[in-house]
Structure formats: structure tokens, C-alpha cells
């Protein structure tokens, strides 16, 4: 889509359709993704489940109240004592209420601690998922804008090469041109048509990728205005690394998972510890071969239990937990290395993007001057049609390279913030402010 068409269509839509038919910006697209992203919904549900683990672990130390009841039909035959010989059928019923309070349970105490670290891991995972979604949306949003700009450049290329082709045919008809130049110009024009189709398809693919994140029909996107290129702030890699090691949700999640695995070892080791419970019970029983016999009793007891041998189950569970703890610790080291490399790479990419944008801007301006000079030279006969075609190709390539650098500088800013674990709504708002209003 050409720049002119992008400028006209929003105004025309506003005039003809309704005052609400406005272009979508980065923030509105991000909000759509937040409401529909399945990864984010999964992370939220995981955190809710982890929060229930805390309550489940705490329940082991809260009072347990139980109720039991039964009714039955019985037959009995009694003989052999003092000439007793009774055969009788009778009904029986009983009910009881019991109250149990844990006094000491070492594994339950450790389980509560373990549940806390699980919540921390789930919360860190949710934070990472939120930042990752913001990064994915920003990349997809500017990928659409970049694809649209490349499509506009492809359209410009086709028109430019078409004009050169028409010019070579005109010179051939009046006898001052040659057939080789015409064929070369036609070949370049045909290639430009193919490039335009490819660029149009690339735009549609980019829009589909963004729409997959929002799960919402995608309208016109607000384009990016001209902006001042910015490098990392602060411009010190070690400062970014130090901050990342403290704030990265990936590292915080891995640390919490390591703590969870270490606490699980403690939970399993404490399975060997004695457990002490205070129990009270009240019970009523009615029904006996002897008429009118009813039993009512109440009592309280202090119960001690301790496993002596469980077939090796506890030892195996402890060894399994220890192995998982070692694996989790190694995973933490791997995550730290990966996050450090990611933030260092993002830092350097952002620094490079500033220089690349400046170089691309100068290269584009130089290519435009070269094209204009070559066209004038061709008109006066000092330059050939091959020279004109080559400079036209160089100019289009310079436009494309500038377009890539223009959008990559913006996404590099977001990528560094995401790599360091600091990407938030304020960052998206500052990027959104760079869009044309």
C-alpha cells in the first residue's frame, strides 16, 4: 500500500463511516492480546493453583472434624455360658464425632515452606509471560508496519522500472535505442512485479501473525512517525547485566523452583520423624442381643506415630528429591547464563541499531542523488540504460535497507527491556507515543 493511500484512507474512513473508525495503535493491540492470549491465561491459572497449595499445606495443622454413623441388621447366637442359649435378630446403630489437632508434624511444616516457593515461581512465570507477550506484540506490530512499507517500496520500484522500460521502448521506436536495453529493462520490470506480489503476501502474513496474538479482526495500524534514534540508557552493559540478574523473571522463577526442590528434600526426610496428634472422640452405640443395652462414651488421647520400615519407600523418595534438587540447581545456572547472554546481545543490538539507522539514512540519500544524476546523464547521452537500471536498483535497495533499520531500532529498544526483565506498560506507552497521531 502506498504512502499516499495510507494517508488518505484513514481520513476517508473517518468521514464516510463513523467517528469511531480509527486506526489501532500499539496499546490497543496489546490490550486485545492480554484479554485473549492463552499463554497468559495459563500462567494466571497456574498461579491460582499454586496459591491453593499453600492452603492445602496449612490444612495439615488446622483442626480436622469428622462425623461417622452407621445402622445395621444383625443376627446372633450365644450359648455355652451358664446354660445360656440365645438366638436373636436385632437392629443396631452408632454415630461418633471426632476432633483431631496436629501437635507436631515436621513434614507438614516443610510443605508449607515449599508451597510458598511454588507461589513465588508461579508469580515470576506470570511476570515473564506478561513481558514476553508485550515483546511479541511489539515485534508483530512493527513487523506489519515494516511489511507495509516494503510493499510501498516495491510498488515504487515497479513504477520506476516501468517508466524506464517505457522510455527505452520509446527510444527504440525512434531509432536511437537498442533491443538489448529494452529486454534488460523489461526483465527488471518483470522482476519488480514479482517483488511487489511477494511484498504484498509478506504484508498479509505479518498481519495474520499479529492477528493470531490478538484473536481479533485487525484494522488499519497507526504508522510510526520519524523519531530520534536512541541507544541503551544507561550506556553500560555491566549495569544492565547487574540489574538483570536481580530483576529477570526467568531467573527469579528458576531460583524459586530451586528453593522448591531443596525444600522437597526436607519434606521427604521428615517423613521419618514422629508425628504427634491430639484427638477427642464422642461415640454412641445402640443395639445388642441383650435388651436395652446402649453405650455412650467420650475420650481424649494423645497419639504418637512414627514409621520404622516402609519397604524402602522413604529412602527412595529422599534420593529422588535430592536428584531433582541437583537438576534444578543446574537448571538455575543454565538460565542465568542464557539470560546474561540474551541481555548482552540485546544491548549490543540496540547500540548497533543506532549506527545502522544513521548509515541507512545516509545511504538512501546518496542513492537518491545518484539516481537523479544518472537519469539526467542518460537523458543527455552520457550514461547508458544499464547504468540507469543499476542505479535505480541500488536506490530501491537503499530504501529497503533504511526501512528495515527504521523499524528494527524501535524493536531493539523493546527487546533490551524485555531481556533485562524490566519491560512494563510505561515502556509500551513511550513507544506508542512515537506513532503518528
Average the pLDDT over all residues and give the rounded result: 88
Largest sheet: 4 strands, antiparallel
Shape: elongated
What name does the CATH topology carry? Outer membrane efflux proteins (OEP)
What is the gyration radius calculated from CA atoms? 38 Å
- Work out the number of β strands: 4
In N-to-C order, the SSE pattern is HHHEEHHHHEEHHH
- CATH top-level class: Mainly Alpha
Total domains: 1
Strand content: 5-15%
Give me the secondary-structure category.
Answer: alpha+beta
pLDDT under 50 segments (min length 5)? 1-21
Query: How far apart are the first and last residues' alpha carbons, in Å?
Result: 19 Å
CATH architecture: Up-down Bundle
As laid out across the biggest beta sheet, the strand order is 1-2-3-4
DSSP summary: helix tally:
10
* CATH homologous superfamily grouping: Outer membrane efflux proteins (OEP)
How is the topology of this model organized?
Elements: H1 3-16, H2 26-36, H3 38-59, E1 64-79, E2 85-104, H4 106-173, H5 179-214, H6 237-247, H7 249-269, E3 275-286, E4 294-305, H8 313-380, H9 385-419, H10 425-432
Antiparallel strand pairs: 1-2, 2-3, 3-4
Amino acid at each position: 500500500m502506498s504512502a499516499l493511500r495510507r494517508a488518505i484512507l484513514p481520513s476517508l474512513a473517518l468521514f464516510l463511516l463513523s467517528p469511531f473508525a480509527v486506526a489501532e495503535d500499539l496499546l490497543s493491540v496489546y490490550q486485545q492480546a492480554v484479554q485473549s492470549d492463552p499463554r497468559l491465561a495459563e500462567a494466571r491459572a497456574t498461579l491460582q493453583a499454586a496459591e491453593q497449595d499453600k492452603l492445602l499445606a496449612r490444612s495439615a495443622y488446622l483442626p480436622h472434624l469428622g462425623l461417622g454413623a452407621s445402622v445395621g441388621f444383625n443376627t446372633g447366637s450365644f450359648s455355652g455360658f451358664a446354660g445360656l442359649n440365645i438366638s436373636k435378630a436385632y437392629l443396631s446403630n452408632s454415630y461418633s464425632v471426632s476432633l483431631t489437632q496436629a501437635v507436631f508434624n515436621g513434614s507438614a511444616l516443610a510443605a508449607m515452606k515449599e508451597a510458598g516457593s511454588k507461589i513465588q515461581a508461579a508469580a515470576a512465570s506470570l511476570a515473564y509471560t506478561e513481558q514476553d507477550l508485550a515483546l511479541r506484540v511489539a515485534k508483530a506490530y512493527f513487523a506489519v508496519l515494516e511489511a507495509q512499507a516494503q510493499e510501498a517500496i516495491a510498488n515504487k520500484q515497479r513504477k520506476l522500472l516501468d517508466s524506464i522500460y517505457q522510455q527505452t521502448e520509446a527510444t527504440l521506436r525512434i531509432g536511437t535505442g537498442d533491443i538489448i536495453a529494452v529486454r534488460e529493462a523489461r526483465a527488471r520490470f518483470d522482476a519488480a512485479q514479482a517483488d511487489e506480489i511477494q511484498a504484498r503476501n509478506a504484508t498479509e502474513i505479518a498481519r495474520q501473525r499479529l492477528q493470531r496474538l490478538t484473536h481479533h479482526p485487525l484494522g488499519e495500524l497507526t504508522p510510526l512517525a520519524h523519531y530520534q534514534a536512541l541507544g541503551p540508557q544507561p550506556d553500560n552493559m555491566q549495569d544492565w547485566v547487574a540489574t538483570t540478574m536481580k530483576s529477570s523473571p526467568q531467573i527469579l522463577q528458576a531460583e524459586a523452583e530451586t528453593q522448591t526442590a531443596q525444600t522437597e528434600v526436607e519434606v521427604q526426610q521428615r517423613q521419618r520423624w514422629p508425628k504427634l496428634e491430639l484427638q477427642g472422640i464422642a461415640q454412641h452405640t445402640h443395639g445388642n442381643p441383650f435388651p436395652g443395652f446402649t453405650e455412650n462414651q467420650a475420650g481424649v488421647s494423645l497419639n504418637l506415630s512414627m514409621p520404622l520400615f516402609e519397604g524402602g519407600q522413604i529412602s527412595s523418595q529422599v534420593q529422588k528429591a535430592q536428584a531433582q534438587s541437583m537438576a534444578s540447581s543446574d537448571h538455575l545456572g543454565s538460565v542465568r547464563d542464557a539470560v546474561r547472554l540474551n541481555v548482552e546481545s540485546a544491548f549490543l543490538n540496540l547500540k548497533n541499531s543506532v549506527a545502522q539507522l544513521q548509515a541507512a539514512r545516509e545511504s538512501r540519500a546518496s542513492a537518491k542523488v545518484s539516481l537523479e544524476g544518472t537519469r539526467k546523464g542518460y537523458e543527455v547521452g552520457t550514461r547508458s540504460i544499464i547504468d540507469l537500471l543499476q542505479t535505480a536498483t541500488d536506490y530501491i535497495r537503499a530504501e529497503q535497507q533504511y526501512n528495515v533499520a527504521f523499524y528494527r531500532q524501535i524493536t531493539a529498544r523493546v527487546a533490551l527491556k524485555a531481556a533485562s526483565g524490566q519491560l512494563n506498560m510505561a515502556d509500551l506507552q513511550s513507544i506508542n507515543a512515537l506513532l503518528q497521531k
